[in-house]
Write a structure and sequence with these properties.
The complex is a heterodimer of chains A (172) and B (374). Chain A is an alpha+beta fold and 172 residues long. Chain A has two domains: 90 residues, Alpha-Beta Plaits (2-Layer Sandwich), CATH 3.30.70; 66 residues. Chain A has four helices and four strands; from the N terminus they run βαβααβαβ. In chain A, 38% of the residues are buried. Chain B is mainly alpha-helical. The chains are: A alpha+beta (172), B mainly alpha (374). Chains A and B meet through strand 2, helix 2 and helix 3 of A and helix 2, helix 3, helix 5 and helix 12 of B.
């Protein structure tokens, strides 16, 4: 059985989506089995407030550190491998190497952030997943994954009552 | 607005980054300069500001492109859902399978916060390092400690001016009057006025210190700019960069869409002349008199310069053709928040409208404006 929402409804506003999610929780549906999809972020709404802590800032800092070290190694090893005449000045000078380290630090942080975003958000993913085009029109999709046949009627009722619209089945 | 500005940044950088290759004269032999292991024995010289440029511009281009493209993903998903035929396939690929789950939104917003913080020091560094291309060179009037902040201020100054022009054109051509309101132009006009004064401050600081130093070789560059063969350009630049914009932008009634566009146009022209005056006169009078000469632009240079403007216009138009130039999801979120948090009426309208009388009901224009205010 695919771990995808099987049935869902489309809510016209965040309050309806909130009612749907609350109703599903009361009906005993686990939080991880409730799917919410929207065309905009709904900050400040309970159905949007699941615990999505991310180590992204730390990973960005780590990426920056790796970038900085790479920058230093690139500059220092290159300069030592091919020492230019510097008139008794240091081969690996502080300021020019510092510029490279700085830029590579920022580049490392930026690339790590982008990579972390893509991986943690599951992108790219072109496989068929639960979705409804009406989400783009502003509707909020609330659905349930791993649906037990026993609870199907209750879930159906909750979704229908909350949204006031039909309950759809994905892939049907 | 962010997207309008980021597009300018990315395309300007792309065009700028191509110029070292164009300047070679024989661009098809550019690979001769690449420091790969070969019999030419070329290694990167890390003491050269040109190499710093390479790293700075690469980082800035990467960061700006990511900062531009990441928030477009949800918009591409929106377009995917409404497009038909090959366009649907194209936007399906570009949207990367975005659906809009809370996890995806949280991740996107976290990434955008980090990128927004990271891109500012990178922007400052790239403009500073471009200025160091000049300041590190032993050329009269280039070897200046103020060049770093002077160039950063100049980049912000001309960037805001270019943004205002782009916004005005988009507003007119794409009928975005409800989204790009007079208030946006008024606020950008105030920012431009501040940058105008900041530019003047750095300009005076740079000119005054050189004049006070009265060093012979620098005076050989200084006076031809101010009262010699370059004087018409110099005073025209002062007019374009300070006098005209200052008068227009400091008078509230002139800070309209048309007024800010006029001021911005003069600034863009003035800033181009400023760079011309930084580059050309010092090279005509370097420290060694045998290197002195007179510069006249040749037809090829004029065509290449015109080509950069054409390339910028083409790339911008193509972008606007295929990508929503205003972030749809951010606008929607802004409108929704504006209905939750009441915004003072005075913030929703342009100053001229406030004087005209009370506002009507919450129009889309007002709603979009209030989202900006938030």
């Amino acid at each position: 059985m695919p771990k995808e929402p099987v049935i869902y409804t489309l809510c016209a506003d965040p309050k309806a989506a909130e009612r749907a999610v609350e109703g599903l929780r009361r009906a005993g549906v686990k939080a991880r089995d409730i799917a919410v999809i929207s065309s905009e972020p709904f900050e400040g709404h309970k159905f949007f407030q699941r615990n999505y802590r991310t180590p992204m800032p730390w990973l960005a800092a780590f990426g920056g550190a790796v970038g900085g070290v790479s920058g230093y190694l690139l500059a220092a090893l290159t300069q030592r491998s091919y020492p230019l005449p510097t008139g008794n000045m240091p081969i690996v000078a502080f300021w020019p190497t510092g510029v490279i380290v700085y830029e590579m630090t920022m580049l490392g942080a930026i690339l790590t952030t982008v990579l972390t975003l893509l991986i943690s958000a599951g992108l790219p993913n072109w496989r068929k997943q639960i979705y409804d085009r009406e989400v783009s029109d502003g509707m909020i999709l609330v659905g349930v994954t791993n649906l037990n046949q026993e609870s199907r009627i209750e879930v159906n009722s909750v979704l229908k009552q909350a949204s006031g619209g039909p309950v759809k089945e994905f892939g049907a | 607005m962010t997207r309008c500005a980021e597009v300018i940044t990315v395309f300007a950088l792309m065009i700028g980054a191509s110029f070292p290759v164009i300047h070679l004269g024989r661009p098809w032999l550019a690979f001769w300069l690449f420091p790969y292991p070969s019999e030419r024995g070329i290694w990167p010289n890390f003491r050269s500001p040109l190499l710093w440029d390479f790293f700075a511009i690469s980082t800035y281009l990467t960061g700006s492109t990511a900062f531009l493209l990441l928030p477009i993903i949800p918009d591409w998903a929106l377009v995917r859902d409404t497009a038909m035929g090959w366009r649907r396939k194209l936007y399906s690929v570009l949207a990367l399978g975005w659906r809009g789950t809370p996890r995806q939104w949280h991740r996107l917003e976290s990434a955008m916060h980090i990128m927004a913080v990271a891109i500012i020091p990178v922007a400052v560094s790239v403009h500073t390092i471009v200025s160091w291309d000049f300041a590190m060179a032993p050329v009269p009037m280039w070897h200046s400690t103020v060049f770093g902040p002077y160039f950063v201020a100049g980049a912000i100054f001309s960037g805001i001016a270019a943004l205002i022009i782009a916004m005005a054109i988009l507003r007119k051509v794409l009928h975005l009057e409800d989204y790009l309101t007079p208030l946006h132009f008024d606020n950008l006009g105030k920012l431009l006025l501040m940058m105008c004064l900041l530019w003047l401050y750095f300009f005076v600081a740079e000119r005054l210190t050189v004049w006070y130093g009265n060093e012979t070789s620098e005076m050989a560059v200084y006076w031809p700019i101010q009262r010699g063969p370059f004087a018409p350009l110099f005073w025209f630049m002062i007019g374009c960069n300070f006098l005209v914009p200052f008068i227009i932008l400091s008078i509230k009634q002139f800070r309209t869409v048309a007024g800010t566009v006029v001021a911005s146009s003069t600034i863009v022209v003035g800033m181009w002349i400023e760079r011309f005056l930084i580059v050309v006169p010092p090279l005509e009078h370097k420290y060694l008199p045998f290197a002195w000469g007179t510069y006249h632009p040749r037809p090829v240079e004029i065509i290449i310069t015109a080509g950069t403007f054409a390339a910028m216009a083409l790339l911008y138009l193509l972008f606007v053709k295929f990508v929503p130039i205003i972030s749809i999801w951010e606008l929607k979120a802004g409108i929704r928040q504006a209905t939750i948090v009441p915004i003072p009426e005075s913030l929703l309208r342009a100053p001229d409208l406030i004087e005209a009388g009370p506002a009507n009901s919450m129009t889309p224009a007002a709603e979009s404006t209030s989202s900006e205010a938030i």
